[in-house]
Write a structure and sequence with these properties.
Blueprint lengths: L18 E5 L2 E6 L9 E6 L8 H12 L4 E4 L19 H6 L3 H17 L4 E7 L1 H11 L5 E5 L8 H9 L4 E8 L5 H11 L9 E10 L2 H4 L5 H21 L1
Parallel strand pairs: 3-4, 3-5, 5-6, 6-7, 7-8
Antiparallel strand pairs: 1-2, 2-4
Helix pairs in contact: 5-6
Length: 249
Amino acid sequence: MESTFLFMHNAPDHCLKGKIEFIGGVRCYVGTPSEEYAKEKVILFLPDIFGIDLINAQLLVDDFARNGFKTVAIDYLNDDPIPSTTLIGPGFDFMSWLLRHGSEQTRPNIDKVMTALKEQGVTGFGATGYCFGGRYCFDLAFDKAINVTVVSHPTLLKIPEDLEKYRDAAEAPLLINSCTVDTRFPLEAQAAADQILGGGKQFTDNYRREYFDGCRHGFAVRGDLSDPKFKAGKEGSFKATVEFFRKHL
């Protein structure tokens, strides 16, 4: 596929091209390429805590489809995301929410979708996880359930344990989209990732860590496009992800 990248950024919701489908009994937002594509390959889109109905997430799914990949955003949060209004207002009890969304409550939905997709003939899975979703990408890679892993500003990772486990147990090539201000995956964790997964290098054949200067946690989904650095980070992380999938999936 030629090295072009198509994306819509924060277009109004009437520009959305994907649709809600139930796969394996699980609600998903699905983006399907309008032109011919490799039907045996699917990108699993594992959103952040705001879930699959956040317009920014749906636009990203559509953008992956525009670039030739059928993409399935999975409601692994059981129709219980954090309200998008929490983006601009305090007062939400995050710890109480987190207790309702452990892996025992959330991972089954991912597995159901993957089983159903395999029954439809899918043999190659890429996964892209944002924030909360990054944890699940690592777990899927540990289980050798996916072929390519991308995480953007991941959270809930144990450093250095999960990095060491990825090095020792996972086989999927890994891309990390990182940034300057991120308490959940700070600069120290980024340096540890390079050391453990890249042998001290930021870029190798099967490991890459993109770094977007001046960006904050959440930039790959919810970056403020009026800020030139956030705009560059959102667009750059998307391009890096598409390129990585084109190379490895």
